[in-house]
Amino acid sequence: FLRVTKQYLPHVARLCLISTFLEDGIRMWFQWSEQRDYIDTTWNCGYLLASSFVFLNLLGQLTGCVLVLSRNFVQYACFGLFGIIALQTIAYSILWDLKFLMRNLALGGGLLLLLAESRSEGKSMFAGVPTMRESSPKQYMQLGGRVLLVLMFMTLLHFDASFFSQPSQQ
After folding, report:
1. Number of folded domains in the chain?
2. What are the CB-based long-range contacts (under 8 Å, 24+) for 142-146?
3. Which stretches are transmembrane (predicted)?
4. Less crowded by CB within 10 Å, the N or C end of the chain?
């Protein structure tokens, strides 16, 4: 099974890491007027500027996804998608919403993983096996990406911070 699927797994992994951008870009296409009206009402910027924002967002996300999936200009695509994350965080005023902020950081972690995967490294004595003395930027990017990706799952947890809460008795 692994021998047959080995060639497809990197493509599936890339698709999973950018699936949020792909879904958001497609949703913007189908909800164009709602998105434009929301930006226009929130920022009071006018029809033309709001339409330009939605178009830039849609084009940036879909183009970035196509470039990542085709493995062309992956670094530029990742930086463009980082820009989309920053743009959406400001435009939709979600910087202070902890849940959305953690999810955006997780998206950034996925992009860091894609960026690390696209970087080339010099040949080592044992292919694919990290050495103890080597610490490359790629390894730090992978570590950072994995840590940030965990934040998405942290948003699913609900903690009860009260020490004095009693379990409900029925």
Report:
1. 1
2. 142/112, 142/113, 142/116, 144/109, 144/112, 145/109, 145/110, 145/111, 145/112, 145/113, 145/115, 145/116, 146/109, 146/113
3. 50-69, 76-94, 143-164
4. C
DSSP code, position 67: H
Sheet strands (E) in 49-140: none
The two tokens of residue 70 are: 């085709």
Instruction: Name residues whose C-beta falls within 8 Å of residue 96's C-beta, 6 or more positions apart in sequence.
Output: none
Name every residue whose Cβ is closer than 8 Å to that of residue 102 and which is 6 or more positions away in sequence: 151, 152, 154, 155
Is 150 a domain residue?
no
pTM of the model: 0.76
Q: What is the pLDDT of residue 22?
A: 93
For residue 32, give both structure tokens.
């164009």
Confidence of residue 128 (pLDDT cuts 50, 70, 90): very low
Domain contains 153:
no
